[in-house]
Amino acid sequence: MSDFGKRLKKVRTARQITQKQLAEILGVAQSTVANYENNTRFPMEHTLVELSNYLNVSIDHLMGIKKIPKKPTNILPEVFLDYLMDGEEQKAVELIKESHKNGIPFTSIIKDTIIPMMDRVGSLWEKGELTPAQEHYLSNIVEGLIAYWSNSLPRQVKKDWSVLLMTPGLEEHVLTLQIAAEYFRSKSWNVYYIGKSVPFDGLSHLIETHSIHVVVLSITMEANLKSCQELIFNIRKLNAKNSPLIVVGGPAVKTRQFAVNTLGADIFVPKVTDLSSIVEKIEKSLLKGL
Fold it and tell me: pLDDT tens digits for 209-230?
């Protein structure tokens, strides 16, 4: 039992929970948690149960009876959302900073923290537990955080490939597109993030003059599918030296068959986290074409 404190501290820090946060959950002083971890005090039975439940680790493991803990659960999305819901944006930023300082790649933070958090926001909105204003506020905060981190992270030497990302028609939702851009940046691509739709004349000039290899389109609202179809048709008509691959994804696009046969895309992305492997496949395809 002498190693109880060490095991408790190890689990707590692995979950990125401070002594103060844990103390608030348990309803005790921070010094009490410190005493637990220093093995100068042992929790009561009901507190031990609370520790097990909150940290998602077996009591046996905390006591040293078993060496294998429960499968860890990622609680960061809930903590991240709680900070934002409480208006504590700086604490949310610090949470991301701490994860990155611990060596977690930004794309992993997006996958394991930001996307699950936004899924939770969507679920709350569908249940009527969030107002449209709250949903927009949270989305805008996350969009800003991603933009900030994207601009502040060091980048490797760029490859010779370029990608353009935008939404078609009157599509307003760009968060998924921002996340998609990060997957390409993580692979050292030249990224041209357009965001919301722009006049086609300017877009066609950019595609032709910057040798765009891939165009990524994200559609959230079904009302914008027709605009997406027309945009792809017009891109196909360009006299670009190398016709770019068209990648399509988003909640409005349900199947690969629809993306390819109806919209005219080359590649369908079922969910944005699939881009990690899809980008690698695109690179192999481009290398073969050299």
Answer: 888 999 999 998 899 999 999 9
162-288: CATH superfamily:
Cobalamin-binding domain (3.40.50.280)
How would you write the chain as a 3-class SS string? CCCHHHHHHHHHHHCCCCHHHHHHHHCCCHHHHHHHHCCCCCCCHHHHHHHHHHHCCCHHHHHCCCCCCCCCCCCHHHHHHHHHHCCCHHHHHHHHHHHHHCCCCHHHHHHHHHHHHHHHHHHHHHCCCCCHHHHHHHHHHHHHHHHHHHHHCCCCCCCCCEEEEECCCCCCCCHHHHHHHHHHHHCCCEEEEEECCCCHHHHHHHHHHCCCCEEEEECCCHHHHHHHHHHHHHHHCCCCCCCCEEEEECCCCCCHHHHHHHCCCCEEECCHHHHHHHHHHHHHHHHHCC
- CATH for 4-63 is 1.10.260.40
The fold of 76-152 is 1.10.1240
pLDDT in tens, 243-253: 899 999 988 99
- Please state the pTM of the whole predicted model: 0.67
Q: What are the sequence ranges of the domains in the chain?
A: 4-63, 76-152, 162-288
